């Protein structure tokens, strides 16, 4: 196992973990978004969707444990890489470290990531926790739309989703680059797909609080 822990703690090992966990989170977000879009179809549709998830509770629990591990690895490694890079900026490698990060999306991953982390804590506390620990049946549609009727709560969601778009725009292409898929001919296409994914994910997630705050009268 010696070689494994050496690899995991190396810079390239950490980058590979970032890329792998990032791609898994990208897939999770697509599935989570598709489920959440049933909110637009009304209480019955969304509660039926949530009820179906409850029927597969053991599987959902396993996925949640895996998701927790994936999030922890992603956040921990991201913070360590950012810190190492920050220290390098003050050293001989300063020029190198800076020249690799050219655009605003790349330079702000730690800030956007930190706010997404705060978002996630609030999100789990307001939706996931009551959904799983309130004891007995819960009208999840009522809970979600009730929160989104509050301007400050919805405003923070919309803000966090814009930052999520920034984070994903860099993360998507960065993951592929780490895997070595940076062929001159195909990489621009990967970048375009990444930007499209980031914009669609941010817009569609944000459209939910926007709709329930401005266009939906009552539950
Ligand atoms: C408008 C946007 C969103 C809505 C309406 C929404 C809704 C929900 C709801 C209702 C739950 C509880 C499900 C249950 O336990 O029965 C949940 C769980 C969760 N959400 Fe979200 N979500 C949104 C955006 C996000 C984003 C952007 C992320 C990640 C950055 C995220 C990550 C999670 C995680 C990790 C869980 C716990 C695992 C799970 O139960 O699927 N959510 N969400």
Shape: globular
CATH homologous superfamily title: Fumarate reductase/succinate dehydrogenase, transmembrane subunit
Mean pLDDT: 92
Low-confidence stretches: none
Radius of gyration: 19 Å
Assign the CATH class.
Answer: Mainly Alpha
Could you tell me the strand content as a percent range? under 5%
Largest pleated sheet: none
Number of separate domains: 1
| CATH topology-level fold name | 3 helical TM bundles of succinate and fumarate reductases
Any idea what the CATH architecture is?
Up-down Bundle
Percent helix range: over 70%
- The secondary-structure element order is HHHHHHHHHH
Structure description:
With 219 residues, the protein is mainly α. The protein has a single domain, classed as Up-down Bundle (3 helical TM bundles of succinate and fumarate reductases). Helix content is 83%, strand content 0%. The protein has 10 helices and no strands. The protein has helices spanning 2-9, 11-36, 43-55, 57-89, 94-100, 104-107, 109-133, 140-148, 151-178, 187-215. The radius of gyration is 19 Å and the shape is globular. The model has no long low-confidence stretch (mean pLDDT 92). Protoporphyrin IX containing FE binds next to helix 2, helix 3, helix 4, helix 7 and helix 8. Residues 32, 36, 50, 53, 64, 67, 116, 120, 123-124, 127-128, 131-132, 140, 144, 157, 164, 205, 208-209 line the site of protoporphyrin IX containing FE.
């Amino acid at each position: 196992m010696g070689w494994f822990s050496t690899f995991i703690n190396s810079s390239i090992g950490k980058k590979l973990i970032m890329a792998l966990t990032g791609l898994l989170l990208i897939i999770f977000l697509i599935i989570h978004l598709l489920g959440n879009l049933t909110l637009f179809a009304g209480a019955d549709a969304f509660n039926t969707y949530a009820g179906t998830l409850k029927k597969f509770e053991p599987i959902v629990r396993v996925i949640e444990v895996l998701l927790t591990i994936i999030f922890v690895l992603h956040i921990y490694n991201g913070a360590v890489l950012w810190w190492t890079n920050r220290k390098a900026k003050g050293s001989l490698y300063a020029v190198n470290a800076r020249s690799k990060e050219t655009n605003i999306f790349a330079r702000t991953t730690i800030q956007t990531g930190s706010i997404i982390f705060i978002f996630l804590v609030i999100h789990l506390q307001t939706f996931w926790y009551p959904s799983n620990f309130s004891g007995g049946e819960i009208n999840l549609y009522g809970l979600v739309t009730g929160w989104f009727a509050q301007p400050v709560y919805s405003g923070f969601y919309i803000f966090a989703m814009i930052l999520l778009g920034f984070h994903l725009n860099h993360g998507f292409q960065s993951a592929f680059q780490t895997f070595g898929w940076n062929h001159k001919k195909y990489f621009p296409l990967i970048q375009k797909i990444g930007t499209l994914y980031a914009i669609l994910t941010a817009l569609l997630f944000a459209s939910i609080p926007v709709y329930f705050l401005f266009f939906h009268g009552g539950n």
